[in-house]
Write a structure and sequence with these properties.
2 copies of one chain form a homodimer. Chain A is an alpha/beta fold. Chain A is built from 12 helices and 10 strands. In chain A, a hairpin with a 5-residue loop joins strand 3 and strand 4.
Chain lengths: 317, 317
Amino acid sequence: MGNKQSYAIIGTGAMGGLYGGLLARSGFEVHFLANSDAQHIAEKGLQVESPLGDFHLQDVNVHSDVSQMPSCDVTVVALKSTQNHLLSTILPVTTRDGGIVLVLQNGLDVEADSARVVGEDRVLGGCCFLCSNKVGPGHIRHLDYGRIVFGEYLADPYGKPAPGLSDRAQRIEAELMDAGIDAEATDDLLLTRWKKLMWNIPFNGLSVALDASTDEIMKQQDSLALSEAIIREVHTAAVGLGVPVPESWIQKQIDATKKMVPYDASMRLDYRFGRPMELDAIFTNPIAAAATAGIKMPLVGMMLQQLQFLNARNLQD
Amino acid sequence: MGNKQSYAIIGTGAMGGLYGGLLARSGFEVHFLANSDAQHIAEKGLQVESPLGDFHLQDVNVHSDVSQMPSCDVTVVALKSTQNHLLSTILPVTTRDGGIVLVLQNGLDVEADSARVVGEDRVLGGCCFLCSNKVGPGHIRHLDYGRIVFGEYLADPYGKPAPGLSDRAQRIEAELMDAGIDAEATDDLLLTRWKKLMWNIPFNGLSVALDASTDEIMKQQDSLALSEAIIREVHTAAVGLGVPVPESWIQKQIDATKKMVPYDASMRLDYRFGRPMELDAIFTNPIAAAATAGIKMPLVGMMLQQLQFLNARNLQD
């Protein structure tokens, strides 16, 4: 595989801080773009608590001004998708000629904004199965899980064969694994995304609509039954679109969430801290995709309407 | 019509206090059963603010102990339906031989609990189209509207002809109107109840799920659209059960709510004050009735599941 690739991490939060930190600790050249935390990290470094081992990085290549960043082999988009309007400024600077962009954002078709900037053929997307929170400036607390599954992005994927396992995805996989990250290159990103939606849609949605953590949702019978009904509706949409999510994935989401440490889904944190919620990525895009195949999602649609109301009020206050 | 009938008002809250107060002011013999407010009302009387004219009643026949109440011609059940377990103690005392029970409670089939005590043939039911709150002990603030529509109760009404307009309903209608109350005896209580559900289900439910007043719900586009979708689902259930609610009633609910003064639906107040919500009457019973005709109510079902979760947490705290 030759020399190690360099990485630009766009967004130094719960996810970018953790994965970028692990890469940097392992000797990769990593450049972080941070916003409010940049000054703190430049002075005090990056602090990571993790079941993989706690660590502190003192000398971090952290930038608050994207124009000062070097171009890298791989740009990892670790921003919230609600910030994607920034990508047209960021990606041309951080991504070298021929370099690639790995979009690690929640939801569906979140790669479209990056593809518009650098071209569809230079974009990979991925999902993180991760419980991690930023608990202070430059301070990441990784709680549980941590797997990244990623692969080649197709802008209009339904009814087409999966793009297959690319060399460049496998190279990134090897490097992430070198850094101690549970990484898996996949030949079918779309399948991965819909599987992840079967968690993100019910549990992000209900965590805000019910103002509840995952364990509260799982232990009350009505919210448990509603979670399962929503998961089932998302599964039906995926299958109807030709995405082969196995039926057993429904129960797996329930079982995994029951076993999970009590956790605030990211959307709940966004709502609590008055930040916009990732409603387009997690709700609107899947509903729109399902609609192209004539599939209705009444429960998810109702949840989106409730969240749109709460989001509008939250941002207004 | 002969002598005026005597009335026992069971529950001296926003609704019982108003209508009982109006009857008493107009010279009817009215006995009130009150709980926490009984002492206050016995000493300070009943204070009513209303667009019909503010008034104060000093000498009120108020009781905190049902065993001290006389039996009356008409017992008006103005309790929350969540208190219906009390009726087996109350109704035999307050209702004279041959007297009747008028159940003015929200929801569907709320008369069943009274019918079990006094017999189906002695029960009338009614809906109040009323914006009124109890703002302090013995202090009622009537804000808007005020119509009561009531009629004969049938325990198993679907597919049967409406029971028709009875003499006793017309007598009560005349007496309520004498007291300045906008009362209407109907030959089809079931139709009235389903029409009212088309308001109560969406706006009570959303007021709690979104923690919002009616005007907030109406002015945001997503919550407005969701309200309309829920109203439509209730309408579809009614029509499927053979209850002839006109299509135009859907838009009427939207228009009336837009014009309504900003208002906290009663379920929102119950939730806020830590009281049980009337979920069986307003949600479970209509869903069960629809199911007997094979009609699904996915949005109302999801709303109920959310409210069951919120109710359980609220009563636990």
